[in-house]
Amino acid sequence: MIAEQWLLCPICGNKTRVKIRGDTILKNFPLFCPKCKQETLINVKQLNMSVIKEPDAQTQSR
Length: 62
Hints:
Protein name: Conjugal transfer protein
Strand order of the largest sheet: 3-4-5
Shape: elongated
Number of strands: 5
Low-confidence stretches: none
Pfam family, one: Cys_rich_KTR
Number of helices: 0
Mean pLDDT: 89
Largest sheet: 3 strands, antiparallel
Organism: Acetatifactor muris
Structural class: mainly beta
């Protein structure tokens, strides 16, 4: 039997609508939380989730 678990929001810690198994691999996955209405980019490998930090947008100077 393969282990399954719900992905938790890295911001508020609540359960999202995504369920992963032990053999699931996600790269640059946009995880949306229905409670806090935030979207974060994550990577998942062997039930371990890591958050991808996006650099803030900067204005272009001429």
